[in-house]
TrEMBL record:
One of its GO terms (cellular component) is plasma membrane. GO terms for molecular function: sugar transmembrane transporter activity. Belongs to the SWEET sugar transporter family. This is Sugar transporter SWEET1. Keywords: Cell membrane, Golgi apparatus, Membrane, Repeat, Sugar transport, Transmembrane, Transmembrane helix, Transport. InterPro entries: SWEET (IPR047664), SWEET_rpt (IPR004316). It holds the Pfam family MtN3_slv. It comes from the Eukaryota. It is a multi-pass membrane protein. The lineage of its organism: Eukaryota, Sar, Stramenopiles, Oomycota, Peronosporomycetes. It is found in: Cell membrane; Golgi apparatus membrane. The chain crosses the membrane at residues 6-28, 40-60, 100-122, 134-153, 165-185, 191-213.
Length: 260
């Protein structure tokens, strides 16, 4: 049985790492374009705060693997994403970003300070009690993260086009949350299996909605308003005609040198 548990923990860790790296291509595009474009900063900030909270919970719950290790890696990835994002953000966005990062940093500090003073016994709590409090707070942040795509789903249903849903990320969240759900059940950890049950359900809803309103690939064939096929023929331009000027004519080069 322990072998299967170890395999489950390894699979969960691998899925979490892949999920954390899933935004690498998007951030690379931001760096390549030197512009954040339409990419929102809030998910990146929420990712960093969420990973920090669960990293502390992993320490308090004496779950160094897979929780602490994977969340520490994910937090490093999230911090890197935010640094690149802020580097290429426009001056107009900087003011709002500073406010957002300040609030996120305050939450970071609150989690860290509470964990430190709790472990030192200042709050007259055991390490397990501190872990429970951090776990409840982490669940709130996680629900906020998982529920954030619901606005996108509303837009998809209204437009009947799911192109705005990042389906690869949604599928990866579904796989990762499912593995965390199984791991939490095996470890009898309510905080882990409870929040990931919600994450599994919400990501599954995103996948279903995506397939319900799946965008059709745009090919070379176009359709008219009544869905009849329309053939588009592109005619190459004919070479430009040479028009001689009535006042000037081209002279050919003499065959023999002109005597001076």
């Amino acid at each position: 049985m322990s072998i299967w548990v170890d395999l489950l923990n390894v699979a969960t860790a691998v899925a979490q790492v892949i999920l954390s790296l899933s935004l690498t291509t998007d951030i690379y595009d931001v760096h390549r374009r030197q512009n954040t474009g339409e990419m929102a900063a809030l998910p990146l900030v929420a990712m960093a705060v969420n990973n920090h909270a669960w990293m502390l919970y992993g320490y308090l719950a004496d779950n160094m693997f897979p929780i602490f290790a994977t969340q520490a890696f994910s937090q490093c990835a999230a911090l890197t994403y935010n640094i690149v994002y802020f580097r290429w953000s426009t001056p107009e966005k900087r003011k709002d970003l500073v406010k957002l990062y300040s609030r996120a940093f305050a939450v970071h500090c609150a989690f860290t300070i509470y964990t430190v003073i709790g472990v030192l016994g200042v709050t007259n709590q055991t390490k397990s009690d501190v872990g429970d409090c951090v776990g409840y707070a982490a669940i709130v942040i996680n629900i906020w993260m998982y529920a954030s795509p619901l606005g996108t789903i509303k837009h998809v249903i209204a437009t009947k086009n799911s192109a705005s849903i990042p389906i690869n990320l949604s599928m990866m969240i579904f796989v990762s949350a499912s593995l965390w759900l199984a791991s939490g059940i095996v470890d009898d950890d309510f905080f882990v299996w409870g929040i990931n049950a919600i994450g599994t359900m919400l990501s599954f809803i995103q996948i279903v909605v995506y397939n319900m309103y799946k965008p059709t690939p745009q090919g070379n064939e176009m359709k008219s308003a009544d869905n009849t096929d329309v053939s588009v023929v592109i005619v190459g331009a004919s070479p430009a005609a040479v028009v001689e000027s009535p006042a000037y004519k081209l002279l050919s080069s003499p065959l023999t040198p002109v005597k001076k």
